[in-house]
Amino acid sequence: MTPLRPMLLAGLALTLSTPRVEAGPVYVASQGAGTLSRIEAGATTVAATIAVGQGIAQVAAGANGRLYLSQPDHAGIDVVDGRTRVVLQRLPFPGQAFGIAASADGLSLFVGDWAGGRVVRLSASTGAVEGDCPVGKDPAGLVLDRKGRLYVADRESRQVSVIDAARMERVATVPVGEGPFALGLSPAEDRLYVANVRSGDLSVVDTGSLTVTATVRIGRMPYGVATSEDGSLVLVTNQQAGTVAVLDSGSLGLKATIPVGRYPEGIAVDGAFAYVANWFSDSVSVIDLKSLTETARIPVAEGPRSLAVGSNSEAVR
């Protein structure tokens, strides 16, 4: 298991891989400081910092500029308006909220109950429970595709659970590596990439057949995964090595190894750049996806672990 700072749970980050037309703001959740930082597309400084509360596990971007942050130590989901930079409310959660995903229509949230071995669907406006589904032990990363299929990394069960989000029924399980943690969908949603923390590899799942078609050795504790918007690159953070591995999605061969900060975890792609949350360096690395180099390192508040990309229509007020 990852070394932990005092009183904080092991974190993660995940990226919803819905294709984007234009780059939007990047939001960085700092677990130690309990803040949400906003970085404008292409910028190398923090535009705004929003105080939320210590113990954030994940952040997910929803519709209408909403951000949702899971609070496992406080049994709730914080709702933030990214446009006005205001914390709107804390939705109650009947369990230990961890991994989180938002539906595209803005109506529902899907939240993993870390201690309860289940995923709960909530109303995004009221927090009312709309359904739940049992999964494996310690559900970590969640990712929702455009057809309403939810994928869940069951860290202690060495599998990915596949859920019909409308019915909240598990329709399949896919065996993967040891300690699956973060998930990333290809833009075409024909592949699911699974970062396996303990076995140090990446499982490539065909989403049509729901079978593993390849396993790629990555390195020392792969913690976050994302794809370029054209689907040609797969980027995986190596937490203990302090690097990002870049794979060619066609051959699955290694194209580059990019040094970043200490203990990189979450990674998100926004247009021509990737952003990496460096947990122990209190910074975000900016990677140019053309040159495959780190072009900037942005200081942020203590303990950045999770990132989400907001809508390009959001304007700071």
UniProtKB/TrEMBL annotation:
Transmembrane segments: none annotated. Keywords: Lyase, Signal. InterPro entries: Host-pathogen_enzymatic-act, N2O_reductase_N, WD40/YVTN_repeat-like_dom_sf, YVTN_b-propeller_repeat. The keyword Signal applies. It comes from the Bacteria. It holds the Pfam family Cytochrom_D1. Residues 1-23 form the signal peptide. GO terms for molecular function: lyase activity. PANTHER family: DIHYDRO-HEME D1 DEHYDROGENASE, PROTEIN NIRF. This is Virginiamycin B lyase. It comes from Methylobacterium bullatum.
